[in-house]
Amino acid sequence: MKKNIAILSSVLAAGICFADFTQDFKKAERDLDLGKNKEAAVQFEKLAAQAPAGAKDQCRFMQTWAFAKMRQFDNAQKAVAEIKDPEMKQCGDFFAIYYCKPANELIAKYGTSDLGKFPEEYQRYVYIFRGERQTDAKKAVPDFEKGVKLSSGDVIRKLQGLNGLTRSYNAAGRKAEAKASAEQAMAVKGYSGFYHTICAALIKARIEFEEGNIAAAEKTLNAIKLGHFAKLPQGIDYCELRGDIAAKKGNAAEAQKNYQLAIDNKYTGKGQKAKLEKKMNALK
C-alpha cells in the first residue's frame, strides 16, 4: 500500500497520466509474478525512463528483481546502481545475490544485517529468503518466524515461510513445533497440492511415523495432493514413507511396491537407491 501511494504521489506531482502509468506498472508486475521476467524487465526499463524521481527507484527495483530471477546478476546490479534510495538499493542488491549467487555469499554479506531497515513492503521476502540461505537451522528459525508473521496477506510467501520453518524446527530437534507449522500450512485451503505445503506435510508425516503414530502419519499423507510432484524428489520421500508404513504394518507386497516406485524415480540418487534396496531385501 505504501509503495502504491508513493508512486501515485510522485506521478501526480510530475503531471504524468496516473491511469496509464499505473496500468503499465501493474501489467509489468503481473508479468513478473507469472514468470515473464524478460518482458517485465523491458517494461520496467520503459517505466523508469518516464517516471519522476519518486517513482523511478521503484521501477528500477522491480527491474532488478526481474533480472535477478533470470540469473542475470550483472544486469541486476546495473539496475541497482540506478536506485537512489539507500535502503531500496540495499534491498535490490540483496535480491540480486539471493537469486544469482551461492547461499554463503548472501549470508556473508547480509547474515547479521538488520532486515527491519529494508523497505517495509519487501521485508517478508528478505526474512524468508535469508532463512532459506542459512545453514544453521537455529539461525534460520527467527528469520522464518518473522517472515511468516509479516506474510499474513501473502499466501504464497506465508506457505514458503511455513515450509522453511517446518524444516528448520525439525533440523533443530523441535519436533512439536515442526508439526505445528506444517499443520498451519496444511490448513490453508486450496493449497494441498502446492510445493511448500507438500514439503512441510512430508516432514510432519515422517516425524509422526518416527514417533510411532502410524495412523497420524497416514492421515497426513492422505491429505497431500501429490500430482506431478510424484515424479519429482517429493515423490521419493512420499513413496518411501508409504513403504515404511506398509512394512511396519506387515504388508510386504505394498511396501515393496512403494519402495520400487521410489527407486524408479529419476531423481533418486545412488545412496538413496542403496538404502531403499536394503529395505526391500529386508522384507524377503
Overview in brief:
The protein has helices at 2-13, 18-33, 37-50, 53-69, 73-81, 86-100, 103-110, 123-133, 137-150, 155-171, 175-186, 195-210, 214-222, 233-248, 252-264, 270-282.
How do the strands and helices of this protein lay out in sequence?
Blueprint: H1 2-13, H2 18-33, H3 37-50, H4 53-69, H5 73-81, H6 86-100, H7 103-110, H8 123-133, H9 137-150, H10 155-171, H11 175-186, H12 195-210, H13 214-222, H14 233-248, H15 252-264, H16 270-282
Explain how this protein is built.
The chain is mainly alpha-helical. It contains 16 helices and no strands. α10 runs antiparallel to α11.
What structural keywords apply?
284 residues, mainly alpha, 0% strand, 16 helices, elongated
Taken in chain order, the helices and strands follow as HHHHHHHHHHHHHHHH
Report the C-alpha radius of gyration, rounded. 23 Å
Largest sheet: none
The proportion of residues forming helix, as a percent range, comes to over 70%
Q: What does the average pLDDT come to? A: 92
Enumerate the spans where pLDDT stays under 50 for 5 or more consecutive residues.
Answer: 11-15
Inertia-based shape: elongated
Helix tally equals 16
Which structural class should the secondary elements be placed in?
mainly alpha
Strand percentage: under 5%
Q: What is the number of E strands?
A: 0
What is the terminal separation in angstroms?
62 Å
